[in-house]
Amino acid sequence: MLVIVVENAPPRLRGRLGVWLVEIRAGVYVGDLSTKVREMLWLQVEQGIEEGNAILTWSTNTESGFDFMTLGKNRRLPVEYDGLKLVSFHPLENQEDGSVL
């Protein structure tokens, strides 16, 4: 199984994802596709995301049972820790003066 979540994605990218996956909620696509198709879809996301952001997660044989990748500007950053992939957060920036909150 795989899940792709996009935010602020252009309509043409959302339409392309909708051909291969089911959009169960706005910007949330799920399906059960081969590794080759998953890689092809992620390449299309990379090429078409523009100013948006995306995450891809899929079932795999790891300790946690899944893996994921992110793309675009997002506070969440995947980090590897002792063989586990976890999520770290970039600190919030104050919009007025650029200081970290």
Features of the shown structure:
101 residues; Alpha-Beta Plaits; two-stranded antiparallel sheet; flat; alpha+beta
Please outline what is shown here.
By secondary structure, the protein is an alpha+beta fold.
Kindly describe this structure.
- With 101 residues, this protein is α+β, with helices and mostly antiparallel strands.
- It has one domain: Alpha-Beta Plaits (2-Layer Sandwich).
- The protein contains two helices and seven strands.
- The protein has helices at 11-20, 35-48; strands at 2-7, 22-25, 28-31, 53-59, 66-71, 76-81, 84-89.
- The chain has a five-stranded antiparallel β-sheet with strand order 2-3-1-4-5, covered by helices on one side. A two-stranded antiparallel sheet has the order 6-7.
- A hairpin with a 2-residue loop joins strand 6 (76-81) and strand 7 (84-89).
- The chain starts with a strand and ends in a 12-residue tail after the last strand.
- The model has no long low-confidence stretch (mean pLDDT 88).
